[in-house]
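Researcher: We're teaching a course module on how sequence relates to structure. For the next exercise, students receive a sequence and then see the predicted structure as tokens, so they can try to spot secondary structure elements on their own. Here is the exercise chain.
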Amino acid sequence: MAGARMNEADRVFWHQTSVRLRTVNRVLALYVALLAGFWGGHKFLLGARREGWLYLAFAWSGITLLASLLDFVDLMRQPAIGQGFLRRRLPARHRAEGDRIDPATWRRLGRVTLAFIAAVTVVSFYLPGG
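Model: And here is the predicted structure for the students to work with:
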């Protein structure tokens, strides 16, 4: 589903309402998610400031590295606006939502934390002297 586009009815609606959507370049968001996602750079870019600070607070643990890879996959699946490789844009969050942490972020960080703890436990169990 990578590269999915907004359906025609939604495109017509946004065109007719003349509402300017705050958007982010898709390629830039994907690069930031890969290269600076462990400290929440992609969250800051998309306007989710509180989620960015949450990622920054947990960056020392390595948990956010795995969560940012999952965010990368989610960004790949989001519908894009526009045509062409460099002109594809992702709708950025509304600024009012930037002060709220999405429940999906809490669930993702929780699942990744449990997987991280399970992996450390398994590795420490099988290490000699552990």
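Model: If you want an answer key for the exercise: The beta strands are 23-25, 89-91. Residues 103-126 form the longest helix (24 residues).
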